Amino acid sequence: MKAIVVGAIACLLCWSAHAQQANCVSQYADAPGMTPAKLIASGHDIKAGWAGGLWLQKGVDVYFCNSGIAREDAAICWKLREPLKGQPCQ
């Protein structure tokens, strides 16, 4: 029984190390300096909203914005883009 538990822990640690080195696909680009207020003022429409987030769109420009409290150095909005492979997982 002890050997099974030790083996399971070893497998979990190995999987965890692999998961930390994995790459992800990202479909969002940071939009520094962009805020929901700026986007709405520039003619973007709110397409969806819920506690914590907004989807805004004007033509082909689509943004996802965090409507919660963020750190001063953190992005508040991200622009939707074609997915890129090999991005670091967050």
Question: How would you describe this structure to a colleague?
Answer:
This protein has 90 residues and is α+β, with helices and mostly antiparallel strands. The protein is 29% helix and 42% strand. Strand 2 (45-50) and strand 3 form a beta hairpin. The protein is built from two helices and five strands. The two termini are 36 Å apart. The longest helix has 20 residues, at 2-21. A five-stranded antiparallel beta sheet has the order 1-5-4-3-2.
Précis, in short:
The chain is α+β, with helices and mostly antiparallel strands and about 90 residues long. It has helices at about 1-20, 35-40, and strands at about 25-30, 45-50, 55-60, 60-65, 75-90. The protein has a five-stranded antiparallel sheet.
**Portion in beta strands:** 35-45%
Write down how many β-strands occur, each being a DSSP E stretch of 2 or more residues: 5
- Whole-number radius of gyration? 19 Å
Question: How helix-rich are the residues, as a percent range?
Answer: 25-40%
Q: Which overall shape is indicated by the principal axes computed on the Cα atoms?
A: globular
| Average residue-wise pLDDT | 79
Strand order of the largest sheet: 1-5-4-3-2
What ranges have pLDDT less than 50 throughout 5 or more consecutive residues?
5-19
Order of helices and strands: HEHEEEE
How far the N terminus sits from the C terminus, by CA atoms, comes to: 36 Å
Structural class: alpha+beta
| Largest sheet descriptor | 5 strands, antiparallel
Please work out how many helical segments DSSP would assign: 2
